[in-house]
């Protein structure tokens, strides 16, 4: 826990494939979090969301943290960090416990969630999240969201479990620890993003969040107010950059620059007359290229991304439940023409999700790139200030204190 005067500070560390971003939020219960610091540094130590080079990642985290500390005028000791990558999987799992005193308490809710986590998972994986979707008291036909205080003898939960590779989680922990920081919690990227950009109505109606970053495209599907499915696809903005580098025979950094400045995801948005200047490899002179050829290459890759998203929605079995449509976020969602292309391909309403529910720095609040970082702040604030009275001491020691002790033992 970081402090500044009488306010708590929460730090979100979005460890992405292309960059590491640290956001500092100032938070007092009952008020929205105010983002007061940001630090960002290019990252080269990750491939498709997973740490492949510890030194390089440590360096990026260090630089991002220092920059954020400078801007916020504080010292950072612990962070909520993001994790993603196609090693993460989800399963929906039930749990059942007897209700101790004939009336559901918070302790019963903790116990029933523990029961849902008692599933056989391979020793090289671990449960990152267990999120209750709904509860059932005795044989209630309807799912119950808040069972505390209800009478009954048996409490059931349907929970969404997110499982990830143990090594991937440990490597992120290692990188953060090497910077002299503690991990308050590791949070799945798509869950964090959905905290920041989705509305309650959308989660009720049914919505798919698609966070297109550089290395991964993360998906989270909500219906009836709870998460139903989560996945991470190993194709995203970096593929688009590679396509441009191949097409134009130009080095990747130039390709990235051209993508950001000139690319669009719908070929018809580029007129035949427009052309762009392309730096060549070595000391050859630059060339000119029709912007339309660039747009076609980019559109093909985005089509592939959306085809994979659609296939994932079908596979999850929740495609029919996504009535509010698709919310796109992440850096690769900023490109011109992406929403139109997605609507055309998926036949559902699509909007760009920008971080909400926080105030402060304009460059953060209105920018889909920071959806995950802002989501980490929101997630952290709910853990540190849960919307429930503390359970009587000595009774059910909270889930998070267990987790924190377990983190300290783990790395």
From TrEMBL:
Annotated family: Belongs to the FtsA/MreB family.
User: Biological process GO annotation list?
Assistant: FtsZ-dependent cytokinesis
Pfam hit, one: FtsA
What membrane topology does the UniProt entry give? Peripheral membrane protein
Protein name per UniProt = Cell division protein FtsA
Q: Which InterPro entries match?
A: ATPase_NBD, Cell_div_FtsA, FtsA/MreB, SHS2_FtsA
Q: Name one GO cellular component term.
A: cytoplasmic side of plasma membrane
Asked if the keyword Cell membrane belongs to this entry, the reply reads: yes
Identify the Gene3D superfamilies for this entry. Answer: 3.30.1490.110, 3.30.420.40
Answer whether the UniProt record assigns the keyword Chaperone to this protein.
Answer: no
Identify the CDD domains for this entry: ASKHA_NBD_FtsA (cd24048)
| Entry-linked SUPFAM superfamilies | Actin-like ATPase domain
What does the function comment of this entry state?
Cell division protein that is involved in the assembly of the Z ring. May serve as a membrane anchor for the Z ring.
Subunit-level organization: Self-interacts. Interacts with FtsZ.
Source taxonomy: Bacteria, Pseudomonadati, Pseudomonadota, Gammaproteobacteria, Lysobacterales
Span of domain SHS2 = 10-197
Q: Keywords assigned by UniProt?
A: Cell cycle, Cell division, Cell membrane, Membrane
Where is the protein situated, by its record's location annotation? Cell membrane
